[in-house]
Structure formats: structure tokens, C-alpha cells
Design a protein that fits this description.
It is built from 28 helices and 15 strands. With about 625 residues, the protein is an alpha/beta fold. It is elongated and about 90 Å long.
Length: about 625
């Protein structure tokens, strides 16, 4: 069954951090040169910060290029508290990490108000200010002359020397990777990926994008703080030149080279860009040239990063072995087979699952838009008369027809809050939705699919459905971060239901396939399932049959009819007139932003103006 997750799959998700832990242990045992161990410790501290940058950049699409500033803030706070105020390292490191998190939160307030490009520039600017900030607190930090750290780290009565510091940095990195692994594999991580690809898709799930962005900044700042705290005591000395813009480029390049969307990619990138030039081939004086050359080659040869290239090679090799053993083709290949025989799958199981999650949900409210006017500059995308309205009645399928550019998608966006009206009103029962955000509207019980499905390539249908279902449990982010028993139970329940939904929709064979490998029809089905997998009473579908096969269209129509018969409301934009008129109870026709007419399917098919508009559109 698609919902069952094998124990081996869970163990394999820990494979990378465990192998890295083994490698760190072996290096500590086999390497005796203290300068090599010191360089290794510094690289590991940078790898912790790079892992945080990878979380922000690769998972959530946030350009947190001020990561080095957070790293430096933690390093200086930790060093000042231990050297000047004689605090214990462990307490000082905690305060340093908190200081980095506070700075990260302050940066998030800026990020929520400007574009990602300008926020990246803000990050570079903040890093360039490090020497000035250090000089401003010269009495505590030593200014440009530097700060000497006399005290070593005491671990249960043992003073940590070079090898002990190397192991300390290694343990900090492994713990950081395990926490990031928890986030990546959790529904929170899946929602972050959806935010990276489309904030509109995330809002449609009911999650406020700003909450996900702040969570990303906090987690990334914590990792930068941990890395900086470890770094503070590695060389016994801190000065501003250790936090030059070059090291920001190092962190960014490490994420790109290793793979921004992978767990171990940033660590591999740091090893390649920091360790290789300093230890393996000793070209430290030409490090900038080495960075540039390696990044250029990596972008050309491995666009997704080294770890992703390795994973792709392993998948290809596994596929070749499967073909040699004569195994059956995948469900994706079968879907593309022109000679494949399509069998109609009854929607009963899927309808049962969708209705089960709506127990106790009020299905009796109408969704209505009246006098809608929406302008983009001088172009009127919607231009209703004051008395014109479109009403989606409970238990009815309302169809929107019109040629391309007539305002159908804009009307859907106005219903959901993505296109706030210049004039007019949107109501849901007795609630006014006109000025509410898309996420708040979604939480009130209105869900939707999109004209172009936005599904992160590396995620699977199971992960997307599990995330959508688990989010409805309103679990704190902390539970997902530490992956405690409560998070396990919620994810297990959500995954079991997601498996049943995927199987009932005919996606069981591709439920664990990355979305990048799905056909356009399968991607469309997943997008529709995500809209249906919320406890909503009204579902808005934008061209849900586009790209579907004949059998899939019949199943879609039968599912919509069965759900509508049970009380669910639908507003559908669809160009397949045969399917659309078959399932519709009411029809509204738009032309150039105006409401041309509305009525029953029989009325619409006999309307001369409608026929002229649609035939003209097809011609």
C-alpha cells in the first residue's frame, strides 16, 4: 500500500549523517597533524552555517546571504562572554546562538517587506559592516586588533585540545544535520518547498507564507549561531578579517556546488571549496580563483549540485539493473504507452475519504461575488455591472465559460483573495471576504487548484498529500524539528490517509515518484487532490481536465458529481465543453471581463451570444 513506509526507508533517511559521522571519527583517529585538524574544525563550523543557508536557499528559496553576519555575531558574543566576562563556554555559546537568532529575526522583518533580490543585497551589506560594528565595540571585541581567547573549552573536567575541538565541531554538525533532516522530511519541509515554488500554492493550503519564511530564518539563524559559537574557540583569536565578504561567497558557493536542495550538499561544498585548496593541493593564496573555477565547472557539469548528481547516477544505475532483470515498466512509462488499456476506476473510495475529513463541516454556505471590477493599470480584467453576480450555491457545480482572456482565472483569484477587487464584494455565507488574505480565506473553507500545477519537482505525491493532511492538525513547528512521538503519530495518520487517497485516485503506482517524473495528467490529478484534501465546503478548480486522458476525465467528472451530490460546492473553469456541461448545474459566461449571461446548461447552449463568443474563441 502507498501509505506504508518501510523501516528501511526510515533508516536510509539517516544514512548521510551517519556516514559523515563515521568519516569525522575516522579522520580524528587517523590524522595526527594539529594544523590539519584545526582546518577541519574550521571547515566543519562553516559547514554548519552552510547547512542553514542551504535550508533557506534550497528548501525555501530565501536568499539569506547575510548568514556570515549571524555567524560572526554568535562568535563574538560567545568569545566576549568567555574571555572578558569569564562565562562558561556552554552558557556563552547558548547566548551567542540566541543573539544570532535575534539578528536573524530582525532580518526577517526586512525580508517580508522587500523582494528577494534586494534582501540578498541587504545580506551582503550587513556582512560588509562587520568590521565597523566590531570597531564600534572596540573595548569588548578588541576592534581591528582582535580579541584573544585565553580560556579553553571544559567538557566535564577535561580541557578540549585540538582533537577534542574537532570532535566537538563534528558532533555539532551531525546534530545540526539531523535537525535539518527532520525538517526536510516533515510536512513543514514540504510546505517550505511549496513556498519556494509558489507562495500562492502555499496560501491555498491555509498556511500564511510569512509564517513559513520566519520559521526558515529562525532555523537558519540558529545553525549560523551554533557554527559561530564553535568557531569562536578554534583558533584562540578573533578579528574582523576572519569574516570578510570572501567567506560569504564561500558559503554561497558551497551550497551551489554541493546542491542547495540536498541535505549533505552544503557540507560537501565546504569540503571541496575550503579543505581542498588549503590541505589537499595547498593553493590558499589563490582561493578566489579556485572558488570561481570550481563553481563554474559545477554549474556546467552538475546544475543541481554534486549530491544530486550522485543521487541521479544511483537512480539511473538502479533503473538499468531493473531493466536487465526484466522488471515491469514504471507507472509513468505505462501512462505514456499509447497501447495501454485504460480502465475506469469508481470514485466511491475517493469520495468516501473526502467526505470523511469533512465530518462536522458546514456545507450550507454560498460563495458570492457581486459588482466585481478589477483593473491592472488601464486594463479592466473584470468589469461587472453593479447588479451582476456569480453565486456558487451549496451542493451545486457552477461552471465558468468564456474565451481566453475573458477574466475566468481573475474571477477565481478574486474569490480566493489573490486578486483583491477595486470595486465589488465577495461574501461566503454572512462573512465578507473582500479584504481577507488568501490563507485566511482558505482556512474558512474555500480551496482551489491552479491553471498550472505548482508541484516541487523533488517532492512526491505522497509527501504533498501527507503535508496537506498533517497541517490540519495544527502541530507546532518544534514538534517537527525534534521529530517527537506526537509528530510521528500525526505524520503516520496523515500518511495512511494520503495513501488511501492516492490509491483511490489511481495514483498508487506513482505515489512515491518525484513529481518531476509524473506525466502532465498525473500532475494535474495531484493538484486537484490537494484542493480536495482540505476540510473545505467550496472547491474552485481551474481547468482540472487539462492534460487528462479520456478515462481520467470520466473519473474526474464522476468524482465531482458524487461530491456535489453529498453537499460540496464547486466552481469550475473548463474548456472541455462536453465534460463541463455534463457535470454543471449552473453556468456563467464571461466575455472581455463582463458577465455575458448565466443560467442552466440547457439555457446556455441555446444562447446565441454565447455560441458566437465561444465559436469565435475557437476560430
Amino acid at each position: 500500500m502507498a501509505g506504508a513506509r518501510s523501516p528501511w526507508a526510515t533508516i536510509r533517511s539517516f544514512q548521510g549523517p551517519l556516514l559523515l559521522a563515521l568519516a569525522i571519527l575516522l579522520v580524528g583517529l587517523l590524522v595526527s597533524r594539529e594544523d590539519y585538524l584545526l582546518q577541519g574544525s574550521i571547515a566543519i563550523s562553516f559547514a554548519i552555517a552552510a547547512t542553514g543557508l542551504g535550508l533557506a536557499l534550497g528548501l525555501a528559496g530565501e536568499y539569506l546571504l547575510g548568514q556570515l553576519a549571524l555567524f560572526a555575531a554568535s562568535a563574538y558574543v560567545t568569545a566576549v562572554l568567555t574571555s572578558v566576562h569569564e562565562w562558561s563556554f556552554w552558557l556563552a555559546a547558548g547566548v551567542g546562538t540566541v543573539a544570532a537568532t535575534v539578528v536573524g529575526l530582525a532580518m526577517s522583518l526586512v525580508a517580508l517587506r522587500i523582494s528577494k533580490f534586494y534582501f540578498a543585497l541587504v545580506g551582503f551589506f550587513l556582512v560588509s559592516l562587520i568590521p565597523n560594528i566590531v570597531q564600534l565595540f572596540e573595548k569588548q571585541t578588541g576592534g581591528s586588533a582582535g580579541l584573544v581567547i585565553y580560556d579553553s573549552i571544559n567538557f566535564f573536567g577535561t580541557e578540549l585540545e585540538t582533537k577534542g575541538l574537532f570532535y566537538l565541531a563534528g558532533v555539532a554538525l551531525i546534530i545540526s544535520l539531523l535537525l535539518v533532516r527532520n525538517v526536510r522530511n516533515s510536512p513543514l519541509g514540504t510546505q517550505m518547498r511549496r513556498m519556494r515554488d509558489s507562495t500562492a500554492a502555499l496560501s491555498a493550503s491555509g498556511m500564511q507564507p510569512w509564517r513559513a519564511r520566519v520559521a526558515v530564518y529562525v532555523l537558519s539563524s540558529i545553525l549560523a549561531g551554533v557554527g559561530g559559537a564553535v568557531f569562536s574557540h578554534l583558533g584562540g583569536f578573533l578579528q574582523p578579517t576572519q569574516f570578510e565578504l570572501t567567506f560569504t561567497i564561500l558559503l554561497f558557493a558551497a551550497v551551489l556546488v554541493g546542491g542547495s536542495t540536498t541535505l549533505l550538499g552544503p557540507t560537501l561544498g565546504v569540503i571541496i571549496l575550503y579543505i581542498v585548496p588549503r590541505v589537499v593541493i595547498n593553493v590558499e593564496g589563490y582561493s578566489d580563483m579556485v572558488y570561481g573555477g570550481i563553481v563554474l565547472l559545477a554549474v556546467i557539469l552538475f546544475p543541481g549540485g554534486i549530491e544530486e548528481a550522485f543521487q541521479s547516477a544511483r537512480a539511473w544505475f538502479t533503473g538499468q539493473l531493473a531493466k536487465r532483470r526484466g522488471e515491469e515498466p514504471s507507472a509513468v512509462e505505462a501512462a505514456l504507452d499509447p497501447d495501454a488499456v485504460e480502465e475506469f476506476v469508481s470514485p466511491d473510495r475517493l469520495v468516501k475519504e473526502m467526505l470523511a475529513m469533512r465530518e462536522g463541516v458546514d456545507l450550507g454556505s454560498s460563495l458570492r461575488i457581486q459588482g466585481a471590477r478589477k483593473r491592472y493599470g488601464g486594463v479592466a480584467a473584470l468589469d461587472f455591472e453593479d447588479g451582476d453576480s456569480v453565486t456558487v450555491a451549496p451542493g451545486k457545480v457552477h461552471l465558468l465559460l468564456g474565451p481566453n482572456g475573458s477574466g475566468k482565472t481573475t474571477l477565481l483569484n478574486a474569490f480566493c483573495g489573490y486578486a483583491p477587487l477595486n470595486e465589488g464584494s465577495v461574501t461566503f455565507g454572512d462573512r465578507d471576504l473582500t479584504s481577507r488574505s488568501p490563507a485566511r480565506i482558505a482556512r474558512l473553507g474555500i480551496s482551489r487548484s491552479f491553471q498550472t500545477p505548482s508541484l516541487p519537482d523533488e517532492t512526491t505525491p505522497m509527501e504533498l498529500l501527507t503535508a496537506a493532511l498533517a497541517y490540519q492538525e495544527s502541530l507546532s513547528y518544534v514538534h517537527w524539528l525534534i521529530s517527537d512521538p506526537l509528530a510521528w503519530r500525526v505524520r503516520r495518520r496523515a500518511r495512511a490517509r494520503a495513501g488511501r487517497i492516492a490509491a483511490a485516485a489511481g495514483l498508487e503506482e506513482v505515489a512515491e515518484q518525484p513529481c518531476s517524473q509524473l506525466t502532465s495528467g498525473q500532475r494535474r490529478i495531484v493538484d486537484v487532490l490537494l484542493a480536495l484534501s482540505r476540510p473545505s465546503s467550496v472547491v474552485l478548480l481551474d481547468e482540472p481536465a487539462a492534460g487528462l486522458s479520456g478515462r481520467e476525465r470520466k473519473q474526474l467528472g464522476a468524482t465531482i458529481e458524487a461530491l456535489a451530490a453529498a453537499g460540496l460546492s464547486f466552481l469550475v473553469v473548463e474548456h472541455d465543453l462536453e465534460l463541463a456541461l455534463q457535470i454543471a448545474d449552473e453556468v456563467s459566461v464571461l466575455a472581455e471581463g463582463h458577465l455575458l449571461t448565466h443560467g442552466t446548461p440547457e439555457d446556455i447552449t441555446q444562447h446565441r451570444g454565447v455560441r458566437e463568443v465561444l465559436i469565435g474563441a475557437e476560430a
